[in-house]
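Researcher: Sequence recovery benchmark, item below. Answer with residues only.
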């Protein structure tokens, strides 16, 4: 369990381009969203809040015991929805919050603790996220797998759906590791924020490169 003091927000939309209502789909006898909530509850979070703009998700979440709040339907991202929860609850800027995707039922509680602890240990950072090494060339090439390149100290340099860093001359996949960090890494969509940074990010307009890649985390690097 993390020693960091943090809260978790689970943004939960009903609308989805490929599978509307997937958060309420049955998985081993429970809604997908409930599995995510249960994992978040197993973490060291002080609070776990489901944030939705849909009454069906609100009813389901409260039905399995979650603390759920109804947020604006105008949000462009889970980041903005999490920021609204922080404002509604009056959470201070210096506190930490983890944004946990509602459609990730297999995400372990240990990863939630890990990303919160990572941010807590780096006082100069405003956001932390996780990645894992890419082992398969097909994942490296797939636009559905988001890649991240970091520096020697683990600071993210860029996120992309393209195969980065380019490695055609290496037989299709970069070297496994340099300086303790994977060279070609798959981004795990789990974020810890200092709440002040979350508010600033949510209030900022989408940037050009974010729209090109369809990756909201690039707004923080613009």
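Model:
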């Amino acid at each position: 369990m993390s020693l960091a003091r943090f809260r978790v927000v689970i943004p939960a939309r009903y609308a989805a381009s490929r599978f509307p209502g997937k958060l309420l789909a049955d998985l081993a006898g429970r809604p997908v969203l409930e599995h995510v909530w249960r994992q978040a509850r197993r973490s060291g979070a002080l609070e776990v809040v489901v944030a939705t703009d849909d009454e069906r998700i609100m009813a389901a979440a409260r039905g399995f015991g979650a603390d759920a709040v109804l947020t604006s339907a105008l949000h462009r991202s889970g980041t903005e929805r999490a920021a609204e929860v922080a404002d509604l609850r009056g959470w201070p800027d210096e506190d930490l919050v983890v944004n946990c995707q509602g459609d990730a039922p297999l995400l372990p509680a240990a990863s939630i603790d890990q990303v919160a602890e990572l941010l807590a240990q780096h006082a100069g950072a405003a956001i932390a996220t996780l990645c894992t090494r890419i082992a398969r060339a097909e994942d490296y090439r797939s636009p559905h797998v988001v890649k991240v390149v970091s520096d020697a100290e683990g600071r993210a340099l860029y996120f992309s759906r393209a195969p980065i860093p380019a490695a055609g001359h290496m037989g299709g996949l970069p070297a496994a590791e340099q300086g303790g960090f994977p060279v070609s890494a798959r981004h795990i969509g789990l974020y810890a924020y200092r709440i002040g940074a979350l508010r600033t990010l949510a209030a900022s307009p989408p940037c050009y490169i974010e729209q090109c890649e369809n990756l909201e985390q690039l707004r923080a690097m613009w």
